[in-house]
Design goal:
The protein is α/β, with parallel strands linked by helices. Helices cover 45% and strands 17% of the residues. Among the domains are: 132 residues, Rossmann fold (3-Layer(aba) Sandwich), CATH 3.40.50; 148 residues, Rossmann fold (3-Layer(aba) Sandwich). The strands form 2 sheets. A 7-stranded mixed beta sheet has the order 9-8-7-6-10-11-12, with helices on both faces.
Length: 422
């Protein structure tokens, strides 16, 4: 399908997302009109965010909020604070969220937000003022029945609390369901902070079982040691996997005999990074992706596995904990090499699944225990893995195309059922 009217940048996350949609649509023989609708976001908002800095100067940041599709329910998606945020990136992430929600069967559409900022360079006061002004600017789009933001790269539960308070102040009463990923004290859900990592763990274990690989003998490499990457390391280690390589933004460490997550965490707390940890050999992020292992888990940012390094990846399985870490050209190389890629819209769907649980609890003013949350998450992730695998085997396509077929098919069905207005 011609994408010139969208002015899609070559090599961008949006180009990858659209190519994945095209691949799935071709296999499905999707109606061209439905395909055209699903290729475009429903709405995209760009806002200016003026902030009074601590020194008294005024600085204006740029923010975005994109709704990709709402056929299956209110839109849902994180907000990221990062200097590399672009509108195309936010559009791509919103599209992936649409498919992700549909793959795991929760009644949300996809959304995403972002602000071009390096949050670590702002004081807490500046960060709060920027967050509240951004929330104010996107107020017309968000709400518990419209669009429910959540944390993403560079944001956390405190930022969600400020957004919830800003929205609630305007409404005149507390509205905990306007965001998820909040602190427990204001309506957050038990199990939410580790949900994405726990979902990655469930999917990784399901993959090892499917391939007949021993959990205890599996060698795991994880790129990223933030909330998702660090949590994944800890959870897989607890299951008996051998973690042989881990990295953060400053570099990584490799030990073929295994790394101890507690030691990595202690080093990070002392030095602000796991780079330099004495329990292994220092490696760069680029080298980490090419280490010998059974399972590679990219848990950082998009575009990490490319045509340039795909031939040197030694893993037999890639589980995408990050959004969009593999570009289409690398996907083709991995398929030719027989490397199984478990796609992001399946592998990292644990976060949005437990966000849905949190939203349901907020709407009902009734709360579940952490064990209940984790068990519900396990059931959904394991079923979704089987659903995607069944499509892959039936259609003889990759797991990514299968997951996209499953997600697109469910969204298309909802779109067709509802029809066009007017």
């Amino acid at each position: 399908m011609d994408r010139t009217e969208q002015h899609v940048a070559e090599g961008s996350a949006l180009e990858s997302a659209l190519r994945q949609l095209d691949d799935a649509a071709g296999v499905m023989e999707l109606d061209p009109g439905v395909h055209e609708v699903l290729a475009h976001p429903r709405r995209a908002l760009e806002v200016a965010i003026p902030v009074k800095m601590d020194d008294g100067t005024i600085r204006v940041f740029t923010g975005y909020r994109v709704h990709h599709n709402t056929s299956r329910g209110p839109s849902k998606g994180g907000i990221r604070y990062h200097p590399s945020v672009t509108l195309d990136e936010v559009k791509a992430l919103a599209m992936w969220m649409t498919w992700k929600c549909a793959v795991v069967g929760i009644p949300f559409g996809g959304a995403k937000g972002g602000v071009i900022v390096e949050p670590g360079k702002l004081s807490k006061g500046e960060l709060q003022r920027m967050t509240r002004r951004y929330a104010y600017e996107i107020l017309p789009l968000i709400g518990p029945e419209r669009d429910i933001p959540a944390p993403d790269l560079g944001t956390n539960e405190q930022i969600m609390a400020w957004i919830m308070d800003t929205y609630s102040t305007r409404e005149g009463y507390s509205v905990p369901g306007v965001v998820t990923g909040k602190p427990l004290s204001i309506g957050g859900s038990a199990g939410r902070s580790m949900a994405t990592a726990r979902g990655v763990m469930y999917v990784t274990l399901a993959t090892l079982k499917h391939l007949g690989m021993s959990v205890e003998e599996a060698r795991i490499v994880v790129q990223g040691f933030g909330n998702v990457g660090g949590g994944t390391v800890e959870l897989l280690y607890q299951q008996g996997c051998r973690i042989v390589g881990v990295s953060d933004v400053q570099g990584g460490v490799y030990n073929p005999d295994g790394l101890n997550p507690q030691g990595l965490r202690a080093h990070e707390e002392q030095y602000g990074t796991i780079a330099g940890y004495e329990g292994g050999q220092r490696v760069t992020n680029e080298e980490l992706l090419e280490l010998g292992c059974d399972v590679l888990i990219p848990a950082a940012i998009e575009g990490q596995l490319t045509r340039a390094n795909a031939d040197r990846v030694k893993a037999s399985v890639i589980v995408e904990a990050a959004n969009g870490p593999t570009v289409p050209e690398a996907d083709e190389i991995f398929e030719d090499r027989g490397i199984l890629v478990v796609p992001d819209i399946l592998a990292n769907a644990g976060g949005v699944t437990v966000s849905y649980f949190e939203w349901v609890q907020d709407i009902q003013a009734y709360y579940w225990s952490e064990d209940e949350v984790n068990d519900r998450l396990r059931q959904i992730m394991e079923k979704s893995y089987v659903d995607v695998l069944s499509v892959a085997e039936e259609r003889k396509v990759s797991m990514r195309t299968a997951a996209t077929i499953l997600g697109v098919g469910r969204v298309a069905e909802a779109h067709i059922t509802r029809g066009l207005y007017p």
